[in-house]
Amino acid sequence: MAAASAAGEFRLGQRGHAAGDPRRVGTVRYLGPVESHSGDWVGVDWDDGAGGRHDGSVAGRRYFVAAGERSASFARPTALSKGISLPDALRLRYRVEDFTKEEQDEMYVFSTSQKRVSVEFVGQNKVQEKLKNFNDLTSASVSYMGVSSTGPPDELENLSLLDLTGNLFSQWHDISALCQALESLEVLNLTNNTMENDIVESPMLENIRILVLNNCGVTWELVEKFKVSFTRLNELHLMSNKLKMIMIPDGKFVQGFNTLRLLNLEDNNIDSWDEIVKLSYLKSLEQLHLNKNRIKHVKYPFILPTHGPLDDASAVPFENLQVLLLGSNEIEDLSSVDSLNLFPSLRDVRLSDNPIADPAKGGAPRFVLIARLGKVKILNGSEVSPRERRESEIRYVRLVMGKTQSNDQEEIKRLHPRFAELKTFHGIEDEKPTSSISGPQKMSSGLINITLKCVGPSMGEKQPLTKKLPPTTTVGKLKSLCESFFKLKDIRVKLFVEEEGCPLPQLLEEDTASLMELGIGSGASIVVDEES
């Protein structure tokens, strides 16, 4: 009887929050009695632990299995809330005369670039005037307000953007009902709502253009199910869902999603590029966000689909992909960088926070990445100007010329695929001994102009100096020269080269490396600082 009473209030799998605290959210995992305790109890597995006390077992008896060792607890039904309706949440959020600072901070919409953008219609002076009825509302955020149902939708016919982050939705039939009620809805953010795998085909979902399902417990099996309903999706955000594998029921490639332009799979523990290759033939895909995964290698897929509706000999993998974000992965080989040149439309690449892009870990500096990526217009969020590209490519050619010991052209091409092309394009000739110039004239003709800037706090204010130096000058030798040029006594220096597009100068670590070997030519700026 006690279990039936509790079941009348809640159901297994239902989402709820602690009474009075809509940010403490959990999932109902047990309904019934607890040994040695009277009355009705609800076993809750709290999101992110959220102050749990055990793992679903008490006094040696297991009632349910929780996600963590201390993520669960038992509560009286009266200590939990089943949530409120969407209209009630909107009234609480927008129909008040005085907003607290915390409430003001939460008044934003979710833009396509995933930035918090202030909602103009909730200005403190005009909120009451503009919201005499909810028909005035076109965009709204009711994040972490315990919303669990659509409620009477009569006054919400113009709502086109809705942020439901951190609420209590879990069943797709509720989302379908929501979309049916909100006929103008095109942007739906369900971040931090734990969604069940119960979706069925519904025409009510076809108007959604941007769907955000970050940290919703989404599987690719569910994605395959809902693509037949979300037929007009332009953006799909699936961050933090532990989608390590893209499981496809038929064939080798994801099909459908004919209007999808942006797919966000950040922070999903994906460690194999083979999983990403399965997305090769999403024909409208322009942006692919893969930051914060565990990808170690990238390779352009030269394979073609050989069966099913994708049997098209003219199909080109990633044909329209323009933006590929690979930041914070584990890429450490230059062949992965070089393979990005094979993506036919790629113009914007992020490689930051990978070993290959970290010179301190043996990776390549920005100028090398720019030179090796011939078509990229934006690298790591920073535009590559024509000047920066030219200087980077020239410096890269000098770097290769200074370090290459072999005359084997095939070996050079394998290690530096763009070297010969860039050398020819910029008209850079091999250094040749000549007898027509001798003495001081010959020496001066091979010097490079370097600007030295002294910035150390103990060095005093010193004007920059421009010096002509042989390209064979090593970093160690240049340090000694700087100590002499700037009259630095008993101060050990370190050198950095400034590069356009880089927020911080790059440390020159190898004392035995020459300026030529580092690709440093005329016009370069060297920052002189003191060792800490």
Outline the structure in words:
With 532 residues, this protein is α/β, with parallel strands linked by helices. Helix content is 21%, strand content 20%. The strands form six sheets. An eleven-stranded mixed β-sheet has the order 11-13-14-15-16-17-18-19-20-21-22, with no helix packed on it. Helix 9 (366-372) crosses helix 10 (386-403) and helix 10 packs across helix 12. The termini are far apart.
Task: Lay out the secondary structure.
Elements lengths: L1 H8 L5 E4 L2 E14 L2 E10 L10 E2 L2 E2 L9 E4 L4 E2 L2 E2 H9 L6 H5 L2 E3 L5 E3 L8 H4 L8 E3 L5 E3 L11 E3 L8 H10 L5 E3 L20 E3 L7 H7 L8 E3 L24 E3 L8 H5 L9 E3 L33 E3 L8 H6 L8 E3 L15 H7 L5 E2 L2 E2 L2 H18 L5 H7 L3 H7 L13 H7 L2 E7 L10 E5 L5 H11 L7 E5 L8 E2 L16 E7 L2
Parallel strand pairs: 8-12, 11-13, 13-14, 14-15, 15-16, 16-17, 17-18, 18-19, 19-20, 20-21, 23-27
Antiparallel strand pairs: 1-2, 1-7, 2-3, 3-6, 4-5, 9-10, 21-22, 23-24, 25-26, 25-27
Helix pairs in contact: 9-10, 10-12
Main features:
alpha/beta, 27 strands, 532 residues, five-stranded antiparallel beta sheet
